[in-house]
Amino acid sequence: MIYISTSCVKNNKISDSVKELAMNGFQNIELSGGTKYYENFENDLLELRDIFSLNYRCHNYFPPPKKPFVLNLASLNEETFQTSFIHLQKAVSLSNRLGADKFAFHAGFFIDIKLNEIGKKLSRDNLFDKKKAIERFCKAFIEIKKRSKNVNLFIENNVFSSSNSDTYPGENPFMMTNFKEYKSLKEKIDFNLLLDIAHLKVSAKTLNLDLEKEFEKMMSVSSYIHVSNNDGFHDLNNPLTKSSILASMLKQSDTQNKDFTLEVYDGMDAVKRSHEALSEVVL
Is the CB of residue 237 less than 8 Å from the CB of residue 230? Predict the structure, then answer.
């Protein structure tokens, strides 16, 4: 099944983003970041679900918080950690109410990223004690999982760009950016992997890893995949084309019984072209 992320369209209200996607013929919609909080957004989502026969899935920074923050379940800053922990509990509860069977969020960071630096080049900061940060992340994940009821939890691989490698030479401030780190985390907690192949493309280049080998190994353990393209240096959320390397890699892999979400930020026409390209590969 192919979902479309609401981050593909730019609106302040989540209901407007959902309606825009639905009016363009998309029924499987992943609710993601980029919109602002407002009262009764949940009622709007339920109403739109019934009108257009939609399937929802919540992701990471959704529902939008009243006060913006950077989600980081590995933070050793108590305020950031608690805000993240509470947000994820709310997201799981909302997923249950919306009838969504999966919820994914990003693996943690070993720094507290500034709000205005999300998705951009980071400024230098002191790294947390990685062992303590991973322990905190794992303990919190286990607690959230206990309360997840009918929702399966997924953790998404992070992206480590070349510009952030320049800021942190010889260090990696992000959890789970490759298969080795996935295996290490999997030994500590039982979780499902959301594989973001665009994140992996960038991280593999930064870490000087073989992209196709990393993709093959991570694809084999994931049933939930985020799809977009980029230049290998930064996460650009470009369209997927039929002639791209990523499309070829997907075509050669086992895509049965897996869910996909498109995260393409180049307009509705690009979303539709990407959906067509992905449909030919995975369906």
Answer: yes
Per DSSP, the three-state class of 59 is: strand
Q: What is the per-residue DSSP string for 9-46?
A: S--SSHHHHHHHHHHTT--EEEE-SSS---TTHHHHHH
For helices 78-98 and 130-146, the axis angle rounded to 10 degrees is: 30
User: What's the predicted TM-score (pTM) here?
Assistant: 0.95
Give, for all 283 residues of the chain, the pLDDT tens digit.
999 999 999 999 999 999 999 999 999 999 998 899 999 999 999 999 999 999 999 999 999 999 999 999 999 999 999 999 999 999 999 999 999 999 999 999 999 988 777 776 777 888 999 999 999 999 999 999 998 988 999 999 999 999 999 999 999 999 999 999 999 999 999 999 999 999 999 999 999 999 999 999 999 999 999 999 999 999 999 999 999 999 999 999 999 999 999 999 999 999 999 999 999 998 6
Give the Cα separation of 76 and 133 in Å (integer): 6
Partners of 30 in the beta sheet? Answer: 5, 57
Backbone angles phi, psi at 187, to 5 degrees: -70, -20
Residues in the chain: 283
Between CA 173 and CA 177, with CA 175 as vertex, the angle to 5 degrees is: 100
Sign, CA dihedral 140-142-143-147, equals positive
Token output for 49: 């679900």
- Whose tokens are 């909302």? That residue is 94
Query: Contact 198/226 with Cβ under 8 angstroms?
Result: yes
Question: How many helices (DSSP H) and strands (DSSP E) are in the chain?
Answer: 10, 8
Burial environment of residue 99 by CB neighbours within 10 A (0 to 12, 13 to 18, 19 or more) = middle
Give the angle 213-215-217 at the CA atoms, nearest 5°: 70
